[in-house]
Amino acid sequence: MIGFKTIAVFNYQHEIMVLKHILDQEEIHYFFENENIISIDPLASFAFGGIQLKVHPNDFEQVQEILDNLNPKLSIV
After folding, report:
1. How far apart are CA 61 and CA 67, in angstroms?
2. Cα angle 54-15-53, degrees, rounded to a multiple of 5
3. pLDDT reported for residue 42
4. What is the arithmetic mean of pLDDT over 48-64?
5. For residue 74, what are the contacts with CB-CB under 8 A and spacing of at least 6?
């Protein structure tokens, strides 16, 4: 998808599940680069640069706000 920008990077697939649901509800166009390869081999995350959330530049600010609101709630211990 030409023109899409990376807004966030995640190391593991479980970190993106809630975010996917929210982005779908908001009807934001996005994709996660490297999601499939890392789901097959989670240890490859660091070799491929993680799972990169790519969004259209028009949605960048809205997605940044969503990420800021989620960040304190996604504390995984």
Report:
1. 10
2. 5
3. 82
4. 93
5. 15, 18
Mean of pLDDT values over 19-44:
91
Alpha-carbon distance of 23 to 64, in angstroms, equals: 11
**Joined tokens for residue 57:** 């530049």
Here the tokens at position 59 are: 């949605």
- Mind spelling out the 3-state secondary structure of 20-77? HHHHHHCCCCEEEECHHHHHHCHHHHHHHCCEEEEECHHHHHHHHHHHHHHHHHHCCC
Mean pLDDT for the stretch of residues 19-34? 94
Q: What is the identity of the amino acid at 20?
A: K
Q: What is the spatial distance between Cα 58 and Cα 10, in angstroms, rounded to a whole number? A: 22
